Amino acid sequence: MVQIIPTLFSTNEDQFKERVTTILASKRFRTGWVQLDLMDGIFVPRTGVGIDVIRKYPLAGYKKEAHLMVGDPSLYMVDLLAYGVNRIVFPIEIDKDIPALVQTIQSHGVFAGVSMNPETDITEVSPYSQTLDSILIMSSHPGREGQPLPQETYGRIGEVKKKFPRVIVGVDGGVTDTNARELVLAGADYLAIGSFLFTGEFDTNFEKVLMAIS
């Protein structure tokens, strides 16, 4: 079953708290996954809320994906594992020991995944495909919300799914009710959605996406 994952993308605590409050008040989205976005101002230009803010909001009852838009994921591991995330996704583009990061994450019973920027060739993932649990396809460069979804994203999803059929494939960036169905048909297993869900009435927007993929 395809999952709709609200993203708690925030550049400050007030915005993060507002999105958490919206999630907890939702009558339509009572269980499932949420995505926590962490930015270091290095891998992406912006900085966002840190684990010190995130840990104030336990989000009990929800599974949590940590999407690390950072240059050194190892700096976040201890705190994220203590917080209780269920999946950690980090950029494939970083110059770090990727197998060691994957092993560290999975040794704690947590799913390990990588994200791919739009210009990154999918062959970059090939050496790690047998150990990765998921691949998150970024339709646009990370660190900003509300960017349109490029047409080539659909083919990219299909290519990744064909090459790595055992891996869960997500897409992040520009997902709305008007393109959700085509993304699923292309092979997406989950849709990470931020601005579309949180602009206006959350439950109404969630239902629009759900109807589109049903």
List keywords for this structure.
214 residues; alpha/beta; TIM Barrel; eight-stranded parallel sheet; 8 helices; 32% helix
Task: Please explain how this structure is put together.
The chain is α/β, with parallel strands linked by helices. The chain has a single domain, classed as Aldolase class I (TIM Barrel), CATH 3.20.20. Helices cover 32% and strands 21% of the residues. It has an eight-stranded parallel β-sheet with strand order 1-8-7-6-5-4-3-2. The longest helix is centred in the first third of the chain and has 13 residues. The model has no long low-confidence stretch (mean pLDDT 95).
Helix percentage: 25-40%
User: How many runs of DSSP E, i.e. beta strands?
Assistant: 8
Low-confidence stretches: none
Beta-strand content estimate: 15-25%
Named CATH architecture = Alpha-Beta Barrel
- Within CATH, the superfamily carries the name Aldolase class I
Can you write the helix and strand succession as a string? EHEHEHEHEEHEHEHH
Kindly give the count of domains. 1
User: Structural class of the secondary structure composition?
Assistant: alpha/beta
Number of helices: 8
Write down the CATH topology. TIM Barrel
The CATH class name reads Alpha Beta
Q: What is the overall shape?
A: globular
